[in-house]
Design goal:
There is one protein chain. The chain is α/β, with parallel strands linked by helices and 360 residues long. Helices cover 39% and strands 16% of the residues. The protein has 2 domains: 10-40 and 265-359, Aspartate Aminotransferase, domain 1 (Alpha-Beta Complex); 43-263, 3-Layer(aba) Sandwich (Aspartate Aminotransferase, domain 2). A 7-stranded mixed sheet has the order 2-8-7-6-5-3-4, sandwiched between helices. The chain has a 3-stranded antiparallel sheet with strand order 9-12-11. A hairpin with a 4-residue loop joins strand 11 (325-327) and strand 12. The longest helix has 24 residues, at 264-287. The protein is globular, with a radius of gyration of 21 Å.
């Protein structure tokens, strides 16, 4: 009997597990597990989505022209170099689909986003993991890991779940050192939390082998709408658009993202609160004996000393209605990742963690 089987690599994919959002029996849950904006989206984005609701029977624009123009104007980019996707995840999928396949390698660092491996395997390519140095991307290690089969190199900057990042000079050195038939993909999902950093956009414009991906799911508070984008050489964007579905983003998603992009004051407010509360959270936990690496994102990853103690802290927090993220799947079994919340959220978490220290 003939058995229908999936393409090679598919069954090697472990199902992605998102951050939990509920605790049985509790109505006061504080979710700090998915790096969401605690303030939600810009009111302008909410209004724009509501205004489009009555037109849901109409197909959305296939070229995403309004959103691409808003991104270009807001960040000083070229609209024709922009592609939009269902989160930056979909742009990552496009890149693997278009540029990697059986016999090719997709390289990423040990604590990188789990979707790199998933998308590589789905395309039939081989994911290759490179070590980091003290939870920071190591350019020399990446260059040493590149082979004649490497087609894509993914670098998360700032990292997730580490929160660490490398500077523009190191990123440029990496791009310069790669073979001409290999694309460097800078996943800059959290770069909006770094004041004055372009996330690699200038490097994209200076070279033909660099692509940057960004998202509306973090600082813009639109995780539920699923909107991301990529910025790359025109030839690469042309290729990606050939595999992109014509109606991949809904009318509501396009309207909400465009309005969010056109409200920079709201984004700047969210970034400033995050900066202050991130420092307060990290310093408060460090004073209790729970250190974290310097974070450039909207979370910190706290090192608890062992997998057992990380699990105990996670259970303690859940017992008090707070959900954080264990990050063993990212190669950090002794750590917990905590999203930076509002001032009152940070106060609540610090108080609960102080009781954890007293009880253990």
């Amino acid at each position: 009997m003939t058995v229908i089987t999936p393409q090679p690599g598919i069954m090697e994919i472990a199902l992605y597990q998102g951050g939990a959002s509920k605790i049985a029996g509790r109505s006061d849950v504080l979710k700090l597990s998915s790096n969401e904006n605690p303030f939600g989206p810009s009111p302008r984005a909410v209004e724009a989505v509501a205004a489009e609701a009555a037109r849901m029977h109409l197909y959305p624009a296939t070229d995403h022209g309004g959103l691409r123009q808003a991104i270009a104007e807001g960040l000083g980019l070229q609209a024709e170099r922009i592609i939009c996707g269902v989160g930056s995840d979909e742009v990552i999928t496009f890149l693997c689909q278009a540029y990697a396949g059986p016999g090719d390698e997709v390289l990423h660092t040990e604590h990188g986003f789990l979707m790199y491996r998933i998308s590589a395997l789905a395309a039939g390519a081989t994911p290759v993991v490179v070590k980091e140095k003290a939870r920071v991307v190591d350019v020399d290690a990446i260059l040493a890991g590149v082979t004649g089969r490497t087609r894509l190199v993914f670098v998360t900057n700032p990292g997730n779940p580490t929160g660490t990042m490398i500077g523009a000079q190191e990123m440029a050195r990496l791009a310069e050192g790669l073979p001409t038939n290999c694309l460097l993909v800078i996943d800059a999902a959290y770069i909006d939390y770094v004041e004055g950093d372009d996330g690699g956009a200038g490097l994209v414009e200076a070279r033909e082998n660099v692509v940057m991906t960004r998202t509306f799911s973090k600082i813009y508070g639109l995780g539920g709408l699923r909107v991301g984008w990529g910025y790359g050489p025109r030839a690469v964007i042309d290729v990606l658009n050939r595999v992109r579905g014509p109606f991949n983003l809904s009318t509501l998603a396009l309207a909400g993202a465009e309005a969010a992009m056109r409200d920079p004051a709201y984004m700047q407010m969210c970034r400033e609160v995050n900066r202050v509360q991130r420092a307060r959270l990290a310093e408060g936990l460090a004073a209790m004996g729970y250190p974290s690496d310097p974070s450039h994102a909207n979370f910190i990853t706290v090192h608890m000393g062992s997998a057992e103690r990380a699990a105990a802290a996670d259970a303690h927090l859940k017992a008090h209605g707070i959900i954080v993220r264990l990050v063993a799947a990212y190669g950090l079994p002794g750590a917990i990742r905590i999203t930076v919340g509002r001032e009152e959220d940070v106060t609540r978490l610090l108080e609960v963690m102080a009781r954890f220290g007293e009880a253990t």
